[in-house]
Amino acid sequence: MNSAEPVIRCRGLSKRFAALTAVDALDLNVRRAEVFGFLGPNGSGKSTTIRMLCGLLLPSAGEIEVLGCQIPRDAEALKRRIGYMTQKFSLYEDLSVLENLQFLATVQGLGKAAARSRIAELLERYWLSELRQQMAGTLSGGQKQRLALAGAVLHKPDLLLLDEPTSAVDPQSRREFWDSLFELAEAGTTLLVSTHYMDEAERCTRLGILDAGRLVADGSPRELLDALPGQPLLVECEQPRQAQRALQGCPEVLAMAQIGAALRVLVAGTDGRAAIAQRLDAARLDARLHDAPANLEDVFVCVTRQPVQVRP
C-alpha cells in the first residue's frame, strides 16, 4: 500500500440499534503509521465504530475500506492483517502466559518455528520472559495488558485497533504501554486508539473527537488547540467554590473546574472576561483573573458543549 493512501477510509458510516443511532454519518481517514486517537465519553460511539472497522459489526449505512479491503465483504481476508485489543483483556486465565501466546499463534496460522521465534521475541520485548509459566489469571493489570498487546501483535499486523486498552491499569503501566505503541508506529504499524483520558489523547499524532456518534473535531492536538474558540482563564480567590456558584448560569461560561485553590474557567466571546469579572464583583468576591494555556479538555468541552453543573 502506498504510504499516502489512507489505511482506513469511511464515508457516511452509521450504526443504528432500533431507535438508537450509535454512529451517525461518520467520515474518517487514517493514514499509514499514524497514532490516531478516538476521544469521547462512554456511549459516544467509539467501540461501535471500531467493531465495524474490524468487520465484527455490520454497519446500517455507509462505506468502509480498511487496508484496501471492503468491509464487511472482505472481513475474513482482513483478519490476518489487523490486531484488535479490547479494554477487557481477551486472555485465557487458566492458561500460562506462554500457552496463551502459543494458542494465539496456532489461531493465526504461524508455523512452529516462526511461532517459537516470534513468541520469544515478544516475551522479551514486553517484559514477560520471567512470567512465561505463570497463569494469566494471576497476573497484575499491567502484566495482563502487556500480554494482551503481545497477543494482538503476534502476527505482525499492519493495523492495530485498541479499544480503551488502558482503562484497568495504573499510571506507570499506562506510560510503559504508550512507549510500546510508539515503537510499533515507528516500525510502520498504524494505530487507532480509543480513550477518554486527556493525557493519552495528547500523545496521539491525530485526534477524532466523537460526541453522540458524530465526529465533531478532527486534527492534530496542536491544530485543535489553535482552533479553540474559547479563552481559558484562571480565577484566583480565597473562596473558589463561591466563585463557581457565582458564575453558574453565566452564558459566557463554557466550563468550570476547581484546580487546587483556583478556579479554571473557559469563556466564550470577546466580552467573556469582562462578564466574568462583573459577576465576581457583583458577588463581592475579591478575585484575580489570569490567562491560562489551552488544553485538550477545553477543546473537548467546546466541541461537545458539555453542560456546566455545579452543586449548590
UniProtKB/TrEMBL annotation:
GO MF term list: ATP binding
UniProt keyword list: ATP-binding, Nucleotide-binding
Matches recorded under InterPro entries: AAA+_ATPase, ABC_transporter-like_ATP-bd, ABC_transporter-like_CS, P-loop_NTPase
Residue ranges of every copy of the ABC transporter domain listed in the record: 8-237
Ranges in a coiled coil: none
Positions of transmembrane segments: none
Protein name: ABC transporter ATP-binding protein
Species per Swiss-Prot/TrEMBL record: Pseudomonas benzenivorans
